[in-house]
Amino acid sequence: MWPRKCISAESSQDDLWGKLICTNFKVSFIPQDAPPKQSRLSHLLLGEHDVPLTCLEQVVTVNDTKGKKKVLGSNQKLKFNPTELILYCKDLRIIRFCFDEAGPESAKKVCLAIAHYSHPADLQLLFGFEYQGRRYHESKERINGSTPRGGLQTPIFDRPSDWDREIKRTGASEWRVCSINEGYAISQSLPEYIVVPVSLADQDLKQHSLSFTDQRIPLWCWNHQNGSALVRMANLSDPLQQRKTDQRFLAAITKSHPQRSEVFRSDLDKCLPNIQDIQNAFVKVRQSCVIDPFEESEERWLSSIENSRWLEYVRAFLKHSAEIVYHLDGKNSSVVLQEEEDRDLSCVVSSLVQLMLDPHYRSLIGFQSLVQKEWVMAGHRFLDRCNHLKKNDKEESPLFMLFLDCVWQIMNQYPAAFEFTEAYLTLLSDSMWIPLFSTFLFNSPKQRAQHLMDFAKNKAIPQGEDQVVYFPPVWNWSQQFSTKDQTLFNNPMYVGKGAACVQNGEVKTFRRTKKTYSSTLRGTSASVRNGMRGGEETLPRRGSLVSELRPDFSPVKDESPSERFFRDWFSRPADQQGLLIPLLMPSHMALWKLYFLRWVPEACIPRGGPITAYHKLSQLVDEIEILQSQLRQYKGPSPGSTPLPSPSGPPSDQRRMYFKAGSPNDPPTPPDFLTSSFPFTPVGNLCRRGIHGTPISKFLNEARIWLSTETLANDTV
Amino acid sequence: MSSDSVSTSTELSPELRVKPRTLAKQVLRDSDKEEPQLLPNETVQDMAQDVTYFCPFIGAMRGTVTVTNYRLFFKCMDRVSLPAFVLDLPLGVVSRVEKIGSASTRGDVSYGLVCKDMRNLRFAHKQMEDTLRKSIFEVLMKFAFPVSNGLQIFAFEYGQVFPENGWKVYDAVSEYKRQGIPNESWRITKVNDHYEVCDTYPSTLVVPVNIPEEELKRVAAFRAKGRIPVLSWIHPESQATVTRCSQPMVGVNGKRSKEDEKYLQAIMDANAQSHKLFIFDARPSVNAAANKMKGGGYESEDAYQNAELVFLDIHNIHVMRESLRKLKDVVYPNIEDSHWLSNLESTHWLEHIKLILAAALRIADKVESGKTSVVVHCSDGWDRTGQLTSLAMLMLDGYYRTIRGFEVLLEKEWLSFGHRFQLRIGHGDKNHTDADRSPVFIQFIDCVWQLTRQFPAAFEFNEYFLVTILDHLYSCLFGTFLCNSEQQRLKERTVSLWSYINSQLEEFTNPLYVNYSNHVLFPVVSLRHLELWVGYYIRWNPRMRPQEPVHQRYKELLAKRAELQKRVDELQREVTNRSASSSSERAGPVRQTACLGDTLC
Question: Can you cite an annotated GO cellular component (chain A) (predicted)?
């Protein structure tokens, strides 16, 4: 069959003709005359025109002449011959195919197949189970024997040693790894190994676990170097034991604090939007960004973004996390995050708090371990929240997406603080919709373990083989991208641990200046902005204004201690390797354009966007790395016979930057592929469509109504 | 001290920043004193102690106020800490001073200063016991509005000498020469040498070759204020041109001018690539039509063969003034916690920015992609017309995206073509309700900032450059933005802003700049990409401070590269020398430098 993929909303002249195929993994479009590759990024498993079935949000068929449209689910009938198929994707793409030249029967067939296979009846039917089994055996044949953990550097937190390292790294000497949940004996949703106060014995824990929802005893997340701990816990389910258990744990947490300071408890359900609110906000912001007609929605763009409440929620989570930071860092007290199940809002807040406080999590490996620790192992219901099986729409909520957006907001304000880029965050979000990685497929570590055990049995994988090897997490990025493409993850601006910084032409090394914070004030804005100016930053300045004001000149408004804490912090230059607090006025919250607008052709800035700055920075950093490599070669193993180093620097597969230093002879023309959507290409990925002038949004609403009548009609047949 | 105060002093005291290294120490030492460091010919007019400044962000504080013939200087005396809170603003930014009723129990009199740069300041001091003695704020009023008080604007007294004379940045003939003019179709005319054809135009004009001077005068008679169509820019390849003028004096009876029609035909004929001419009327069509009642109007397509008239729907100066006023309400002093975006939307500021940019993009696209010449006008051709021609030129010609090129663009399209800065800003004039005031130029700079956001590597200048220009739009320190026209501007008696800027280019340079050849900018003119320029409009709010600019990091990396390059070069030399002398001695320095290399890695 020869459908047409629509490329442009205005005309059909750029449309592609080709084959539309539905496999058990993806919807694949193979153009007849393969056009030059548009996308800069090649996915190793998916072609430019491929969509994984898990990535389909909605499958809509249309018959133009009859004026009919239908949203297709699993095992449904279609009573008209579709002239068009529109695929709404979870990664915000919208893809449209026309069947004007295709046989009506085959068109219907492929639409029904797509709809059917995108609604798998069972988790095991997701393609990952098929794929990883095959891959495991094939790679076994090739390399003959397993590499431990597939060379993966990211800790998975499925073994005590990962937790032990984390305890040591954060200096949490009053906390211990506990293995009472081994084999998931206590709780269905906790990981096998958890960290608890040293003062609580296993027996106590077992006994008290019964009082908590799903026996989720409080879970240690992180320790501040001042000794305060971040702990998350579920609500107490047993009203009789409630008080006693609660006090027992609070006492233990207090005891684990060097100053025994009072524990601050934050009930997240009371102060943050719930999962339904978040889902509704996301649906609305997506509607505004990719579905509403571009021109018509311009006039009310700002209020439509506001009305979606997405940015309001992003801000609420950041703000709440910053408050928690104040308690841990400013008030030196341990914090307990409480949520009914401790599996949704807590994941967002606890990981944001740690990102702000601990620079380790702003490195690539650190960030991945954070997601592993606070999301995957803490039992975030990825399966339900992603709605991979499309069974229960009520459970669907883009919490992880919300978290990524929050991370982006911090990154947007502190562009040198993260080792990774916004392209990495975007590709990570896209990976949620590729069902090949163990990371986003399960509701809990237990579910994961069970499924993978069954899987191993079915696929004849020897017992005792590491799950991470036979069903790898997303962190093994070479599953998806070449080494070269993975360099897009690297932020050229990153100021890593011990990285050099240059002030006034002199090279200095960044030091953690946490301890000296309180005695210095930030330099003038000019000195911060211009950076290179001497003198004034290094002068110590005493005190903050308010603290020294005489009482009769108290501020216009009363400042709370936390406001004071934030104002003090903002009055100093930010240390990229220290505490980072985002600015949180409403005017600071920005729409994450790369994520939300990358597929919208009208919003794509040709030869522009932040990528042009990234391009220039990458080239400079590449030059620096070539020079560093030359220096290392001079140092070489046999200094007596130092060969002249090659001017090209390290071999290209070891270079960290996506954009290589150009030769001075290169003509300075901006590369055409640099657009604000880079590394994505909006061309052909999206097609809004007004049917007889009706905006697509309205069309979809009608489609829902139509669906019910169709079902009725079927029933009567 | 608060960062609020520091930014005030550093951003508005350019003279202090000429030599930043020595400056830093001076500022600190000076902050022990109660007086500001004075500029050449700046004199203290009055001083008052025990004045309270009500900072909207930090709270009330008591200190000393000094008023000079150039500035207001407040220094907080509440504390001994270093450096003290300082407020340092040129009196030029003051739009009005209001005495606020002294209902206070303490018998304080309170004064509110409304500023042109998006902030209001409030002070109070004790009621004068000696009723003959004037309040310092009455003294301030005298010097804040010198024009209304028969005094001289400070720019005429300021005697700072800079290494470069900024008035020499723009020379009309050399700029036209850069564009390849004169050529076979265009010539430079001296018909306006003594501003007799048009007193709001520059003396050097470029017109079609085959139109004699006499005819130019007849065309001038048909165009409002004599502002005939003249060339602003010519495409180096297609020869398509951007020309600017004022509205034709069509009137209610639909008057025609054969000379004007012939003249526009000549503009079209000068471009062999196209047999069409686009006339872009910046106004909404309703406004253009309404102008007929006042003798103005627009070109009818019957009279002008092969010309297509397009209205660009940009509103007039009054609408823009109102929009900025609303914006100030939304952003100053505090931003409300909810409804930020809809409040911003209700000011329509970004919508106006969008319309202007969209119009400029259409013009640039017609010239670049359509290879068609365009004529741009509004009513008088000194507000919207200047915005559009200069923005289109910025998109079309990379030269204007350099620091010097941008200065040339401003000198040419704004200053020489008679944007009425004096009238629009009201320098030294106390009549703050004057309906001629309007933020036309701010809007233009905002549009430029939007372009720099979309193309961060395409401009040689940085955000600070744009903020500095806007600060000196009001400061009355330099002569650049004084007066209404080239004829009025007394260059010899004042210092040019470019003298100051070009003496410390480093401060204003965007390190990410790449000089791409033939790079025409096609911005996405959509609210999805337009942003409120927080670095300007919300800069007084200490919670709004930009955190870590990319530029700074880039500079650090540049320095690091230079350092490494030096090491590598040294080593290379050493290795070469060693192999030349074939010495068996092991080189100590190699080890040392290699170790340094490690710390840099």
Answer: membrane
The position carrying tokens 């801000």 is: A315
Pairwise CB contact (< 8 Å): A500 & B600? yes
| CB proximity list for B85: less than 8 A, separation 6 or greater | A545, B1, B2, B5, B55, B58, B61, B63, B75, B76
**In the beta sheet, which residues pair with residue B62?**
B52
Chain A residues within an 8 Å CB radius of B597: 628, 631-632, 634-635
CA distance B448 to chain A (A): 14
The predicted-structure confidence for A484-543, as pLDDT tens digits, reads as follows 999 999 999 998 765 444 444 344 443 333 333 322 233 333 322 222 222 232 222 333
Give how far Cα B91 sits from Cα of A684, B13, B53, B67, B114, Å: 56, 12, 16, 9, 11
Query: Which stretches of B410-546 are DSSP H helices?
Result: 421-425, 440-454, 463-475, 497-502, 505-508, 534-537
Q: pTM, whole model, 2 decimals?
A: 0.89
Rounded Cα distance between B455 and B453, Å, is 6
Q: Which residues of chain B have pLDDT under 70?
A: 1-34, 79-83, 101-106, 129-132, 545-549, 582-601
What order do you get walking across the sheet with A68-72 strand by strand? Answer: A51-52, A26-31, A16-22, A4-5, A94-98, A84-89, A56-63, A68-72
Q: Which of B500, B428, B513, B499 is nearest to B462 (CA)?
A: B513
Measured between alpha carbons, how far is A616 from A325 in angstroms, rounded to an integer?
A: 35
A574 touches chain B (CB under 8 A): yes
C-alpha A297/C-alpha A690 separation (Å) is 13
The confidence score (pLDDT) of residue B320 equals 97
Residue of A nearest to B567 (CA): A631
pLDDT tens for A422-471 read: 999 999 999 999 999 999 999 999 999 999 999 999 988 888 888 888 89
Q: Which long-range contacts (CB under 8 A, 24 or more apart) does A499-506 make?
A: A500/B560, A500/B599, A500/B600, A501/B556, A502/B555, A502/B556, A502/B557, A502/B559, A502/B560, A502/B563, A503/A531, A503/A532, A503/A534, A503/A537, A503/B556, A504/A532, A504/A533, A504/A534, A505/A532, A505/B559
CB of A356 within 8 A of CB of A367? Answer: no
Please, are residues A230 and A334 in contact by the beta-carbon 8 Å criterion? yes
For A372-397, the pLDDT digits (tens) are 999 999 999 999 999 999 988 999 99
How far is Cα B593 from Cα B204, in angstroms, rounded to an integer? 60
Q: Are A65 and A104 in contact (CB under 8 A)?
A: no
Question: Does the distance separating the beta carbons of A556 and B59 come in below 8 Å?
Answer: yes
Determine the Cα–Cα distance for residues B221 and B215; give it in Å rounded to an integer. Answer: 10
Q: What is the pLDDT of residue B363?
A: 97
Q: Which residue in chain A has the smallest CA separation from B463?
A: A529
Q: Residue A197's beta-bridge partner residues?
A: A175
Say how many C-beta atoms besides its own lie within 10 A of residue A359's C-beta: 23
DSSP letter assigned to residue B509 = B
Nearest to B440 by CA among B351, B548, B324, B556: B324
C-alpha to C-alpha distance for A409 and A259, rounded to whole angstroms: 34
Q: Which amino acid is at B463?
A: E
Angstrom distance (rounded) from CA A31 to CA A14: 12
A512: left (phi over 0), alpha (psi -120 to 50) or beta: beta
Helix (H) or strand (E) holding B121: strand B120-126
Distance CA B445, CA A153 (A): 49
Torsion of CA A530, A534, A540, A543, to 10 degrees: -30
Contacts 24+ apart (CB under 8 A), B48-52: B48/B125, B48/B135, B48/B136, B49/B77, B50/B125, B50/B126, B51/B123, B51/B124, B51/B125, B51/B136, B52/B108, B52/B123, B52/B124, B52/B125
To the nearest whole Å, the CA of A535 is away from the closest chain B CA by 7
